[in-house]
Amino acid sequence: MARKITTDEGRAAIRAVDEATAGGATPARADLGTAVRYLLQLLAEKAPGNSVEVRVPPFGAVQVVEGPRHTRGTPPNVVEMTPGTWISLAVGRSSWTDAVGTPELSASGIRASEIAALLPLRP
Fold it and tell me: Omega before 57 cis (within 30°)?
């Protein structure tokens, strides 16, 4: 099991990503990875379960939302997005309706859109 990211570490990484992006720079990979994993961790705490898989390659994935457990192959309900899109959705800078269907976010399965009701996380 991965080490739990503390609130201080997570918020510091989000700030570092925000500062780099605001300045027109590319965020440090370590900061981006920590921010993504921290926000995925918060999502898993907010909506424990196994019926929707949220993927943010290459940094992480979690299964969330109560319902039938998925055990083999590709889950029937998958949300996959870029790291920047995930951070923006999770902290409330963009909305699900603006992001879904774009190249930056794909959602498949009848339960995938349930993620929208869980956002933003507002750490």
Answer: no
Range of the domain at 74: 7-118
What is the pLDDT, as a whole number, of residue 70? Answer: 59
CA 41 from centre of chain: 8
| Both tokens assigned to 91 | 């902290």
For the whole prediction, is pTM greater than 0.85?
A: yes
How many domains are contained in the chain? 1
Q: What does the pLDDT look like over 36-49, one tens digit per residue?
A: 999 999 999 999 99
Separation of alpha carbons 74 and 71, rounded Å? 9
